[in-house]
Design goal:
Keywords: ATP-binding, Isomerase, Lyase, Metal-binding, Multifunctional enzyme, NAD, NADP, Nucleotide-binding, Potassium. Belongs to the NnrE/AIBP family. Belongs to the NnrD/CARKD family. InterPro entries: Carbohydrate_kinase_pred_CS, CARKD, Nnr, Ribokinase-like, YjeF_N_dom, YjeF_N_dom_sf. The protein has 21 helices and 19 strands. The protein folds into 2 domains: about 220 residues, 3-Layer(aba) Sandwich (Rossmann fold), CATH 3.40.50; about 260 residues, Ribokinase (UDP-N-acetylmuramoyl-L-alanine:D-glutamate ligase, 3-Layer(aba) Sandwich), CATH 3.40.1190. It is elongated. By secondary structure, the chain is of the alpha/beta class. Bound molecules: ligand NPW, adenosine-5'-diphosphate (ADP) and potassium ion. The site of potassium ion has 11 residues, from strand 4 and strand 5.
Length: about 525
C-alpha cells in the first residue's frame, strides 16, 4: 500500500478533478460518506439518537466534517457542529456543504473566542462521539491559541474521537507534533495513508487506521510513481513462494554467520537460529575458537567453526583466510552479532568486507567498524543490508540519535542511495530503504522487542531469506515484517514485559504459517487447517 506526503495527496486530488473530471465536491461527498459509514459501524449499525459533536475547520477537512454532519443529521443523530471559523470565511465546497447543512436545520455553534469554549465543554460532557474535522493535510506548524485550546479540550473530554483524514495538529509528512494534537480513537484517511499516520508518534495518535476509497481513479495513483509503501500481509504473501515438493536443503541456501566474542556468544546463536527459522537450508556460525563448543551446545542444527582469536576471546586478523574459505560454500554472510569493538576485530571487518563476493548483512559491531572507516560504504560494489538501530545509524553518519529519530525516513533513504545498500533503520516503525530509492515502512513490532538480542534475530532472518533467493531489499523488508509480527504474536500470548529475543525464534514459524497458508492451499491442493 503506497504512503504519500500531503503534497503528493493534494496533487492527486487536483489531478482527479482536472484530468479525470471528478468534481472535488464529489470527492468531498465520498469522503464524508465513508466517515459516516465508519461511524455507523462504530455504533453497531444505528446512529439515531446518538449525540455526535463535529469540530470543523475552515478548509476542506472542515468540509468533510460538514458532509458527515449532514448525513448523521439525516439519519436521526443529534448533531452539533462547532465551527472554528466564521461562516462567511468558508469558500467553495466547504461553504456549499455548510449551506446545505444549515438549510436542513442543522445546528452550527461558532468557536471564535474563549467564551465559546464553555458551550463546547458542556456539550462534550454529553457526547457519544467527537468528530475531528479541524485540520487535515493543509495543517502546518502548530495549533496555537484558541485552536490549540479546542484540541486540548477535546482530548481531555475522555470521549471516543474519530479523526477525519488526520488527527488535527499532526504533521502529515513526518508524523511529528509541534503543539497540541488530537489523540484519536480511530482515523479514517482518504485514498492513501499519509506518511504521518504510519510514523511515530503519528501512528499512535491516529489510533486504529482505516484507509477508505473516495473514488480517486486507480490509474491516476499508479501513474504517480510513488516510492514509499507500507508493508502489508498481502505484499509479504506475494514474496513467499511455496516450496517445491522435491526440494532439498541445498535449494534454500547456506548462511555464514561471523561474530561472537568472550561473553557475547548468544548474539551469534540468536542470529544463526533466526536464519534457520527463516527457512535457510544450512547455517554455519564462525566464532573465536574458545567459544565454538559453547555455541555448538546452544545450537543443535547450526554447524560451528572455531576461528583464530586474540587473548580475551576476540577474532584476530588470522581469521580472514578461514572466513574467505568458508564463504566459498556460502550464499550469504551475516557479520556483526557479538563481534566486540576491539580494534583488531575492526580491522578484520574492514579488510574482509571489500573481498566478500556474496550478499552480506552487516549488523551491530560490524556497523560500528564501518563507522570508523566508511571507505567500503562509499566505494565498494556490494549487495549489502545494513541493520542499524538509531544509535548505530547516528555513528555511521556522524550525527546524534535524536537527529536520526527526527527524520528516520530521510536518514534511511539518503544513506541507502549514498552507499548503494539496503538500510534497515530499526525501532518503532522500522524503515527499509533500498538503493533504488524505494522504501518501506514496517507496521509490525512492539516495545516488548526492545530487549537484548532481538536485533540479532532480525539479522539472521534477513540472511535466511536472502539465502533462499529473495532479492536483498525484498528479504530485508519481508524479514522486518515477519520479525515484528513474531514479536506481536509473542506479546499477544505472553505480554511485552517478559518478552525475550529467544521467544521470537519460537514464534517465527507461526508467522510464516499464517502467511503461507493461502499459497499452500493454492499450490499443493491440500494445506494445513487455517
Ligand atoms: N479535493 C480535495 O482536495 C479533497 C480534500 N479532502 C480533505 O481536504 C483536506 C485538506 O484540505 P485543505 O487543503 O483545505 O486544508 P485543511 O487541512 O482543511 O486546513 C484548513 C486550513 O487550516 C489552516 N491552517 C493550517 N495550519 C494551521 C495552523 N497551524 N493553525 C491554524 N490554522 C491552520 C489553513 O488556513 P490558512 O493557513 O490557509 O489561512 C488551512 O487552509 C484533506 O485532509 C481532506 O480531509 C477530502 O475531502 C478529499 C477531497
Ligand atoms: N518500540 C518498539 N516498537 C517496535 N519494534 C521495536 C521497538 N523497540 C525495538 N524494536 C525492535 O526490536 C529490535 C531491536 O534491535 P536492536 O536495537 O538491534 O537490539 P539488539 O542490538 O539488542 O539486538 C529491532 O528490530 C527493533 O525494530
Ligand atoms: K482532522
Amino acid at each position: 500500500m503506497y504512503v504519500v506526503t500531503a503534497a503528493e495527496m493534494a496533487e492527486i486530488d487536483r489531478m482527479a478533478s482536472r484530468d479525470y473530471f471528478v468534481p472535488s465536491i464529489v470527492l468531498m461527498e465520498n469522503a464524508g460518506l465513508r466517515v459516516t459509514e465508519s461511524i455507523r459501524r462504530y455504533f453497531g449499525g444505528r446512529v439515531a439518537g446518538k449525540r455526535v459533536l463535529i469540530f470543523a475547520g475552515k478548509g476542506n477537512n472542515g468540509g468533510d466534517g460538514l458532509v458527515v454532519a449532514r448525513h448523521l443529521h439525516n439519519e436521526g443523530a443529534e448533531v452539533k457542529v462547532f465551527l472554528l471559523a466564521r461562516p462567511e470565511d468558508l469558500r467553495g465546497d466547504p461553504r456549499t456543504n455548510l449551506e446545505i447543512y444549515q438549510k436542513m436545520g442543522g445546528k452550527i455553534f461558532p468557536i471564535l473566542e474563549q467564551s465559546h469554549l464553555q458551550r463546547a465543554d458542556i456539550s462534550l460532557l454529553y457526547a457519544d462521539l467527537v468528530v475531528d474535522a479541524i485540520f487535515g493535510t493543509g495543517f502546518k506548524g502548530a495549533a496555537l491559541g484558541l485552536t490549540g485550546e479546542v484540541i486540548k479540550l477535546i482530548n481531555n473530554a475522555g470521549k471516543p474521537i474519530v479523526a477525519v483524514d488526520l488527527p488535527s495538529g499532526l504533521d502529515a509528512d513526518t508524523g511529528q507534533v509541534h503543539g497540541p494534537c488530537i489523540k484519536a480513537t480511530w482515523t479514517v484517511t482518504f485514498a492513501l495513508p499519509k506518511r504521518g499516520l504510519v510514523l511515530e508518534p503519528g501512528a499512535t495518535l491516529a489510533g486504529e487506521l482505516e484507509v477508505v476509497d473516495i473514488g480517486i481513479p486507480r490509474r491516476l495513483i499508479e501513474s504517480r510513481n510513488l516510492r514509499l509503501r507500507l508493508l502489508t500481509p498481502a505484499w509479504c504473501r506475494e514474496q513467499l513462494k511455496p516450496r517445491d515438493p522435491s526440494s532439498h536443503k541445498g535449494n534454500f541456501g547456506h548462511v555464514l554467520v561471523v561474530g561472537g566474542s568472550q561473553g557475547m556468544v548468544g548474539a551469534v546463536a540468536l542470529a544463526a537460529l533466526g536464519a534457520l527459522r527463516a527457512g535457510a537450508g544450512l547455517v554455519t556460525a564462525a566464532v573465536p575458537r574458545s567459544l565454538q563448543d559453547v555455541l555448538a551446545a546452544k545450537t543443535t542444527e547450526v554447524m560451528t567453526r572455531g576461528l583464530p582469536e586474540m587473548p580475551g576471546g576476540v577474532l584476530s586478523r588470522e581469521a580472514l583466510p578461514y572466513i574467505l574459505e568458508l564463504l566459498e560454500k556460502c550464499t550469504v554472510l551475516a557479520i556483526g552479532p557479538g563481534l566486540s569493538r576491539d580494534k583488531t576485530t575492526v580491522s578484520l571487518v574492514l579488510e574482509l568486507l571489500p573481498q566478500v563476493r556474496c550478499p552480506v548483512v552487516i549488523d551491530a559491531d560490524a556497523l560500528n567498524a564501518l563507522a570508523e572507516d566508511r571507505k567500503y560504504l562509499r566505494e565498494a560494489e556490494k549487495e549489502a543490508v545494513l541493520t542499524p538501530h538509531p544509535g548505530e545509524m547516528a555513528r555511521l553518519i556522524e550525527t546524534t540519535t535524536a537527529q536520526v529519530q527526527a527524520d528516520r525516513l530521510g536518514v534511511a533513504t539518503r544513506a541507502a542511495q549514498d552507499w548503494r545498500v539496503t538500510v534497515v533503520l530499526k525501532g518503532a516503525r522500522t524503515i527499509i530503504a533500498s538503493p533504488s530509492g524505494e522504501a518501506f515502512i514496517n507496521p509490525t513490532g512492539n516495545p516488548g522487542m526492545a530487549t537484548a538480542g532481538s536485533g540479532d534475530v532480525l539479522t539472521g532472518v534477513v540472511a535466511g531469506l536472502i539465502a533462499q533467493g529473495l532479492p536483498v531489499p525484498v528479504a530485508a523488508a519481508l524479514g522486518a515484517y515477519i520479525h515484528g509480527a513474531a514479536g506481536d504474536y509473542a506479546a499477544r500470548t505472553q505480554g511485552q514485559q517478559g518478552l525475550v529475543a529467544g521467544d521470537l525464534l519460537n514464534y517465527l514459524p507461526r508467522v510464516f504459517r499464517k502467511l503461507e497458508a493461502r499459497t499452500e492451499k493454492t499450490c499443493l491442493g491440500k494445506g494445513l487447517p487455517l
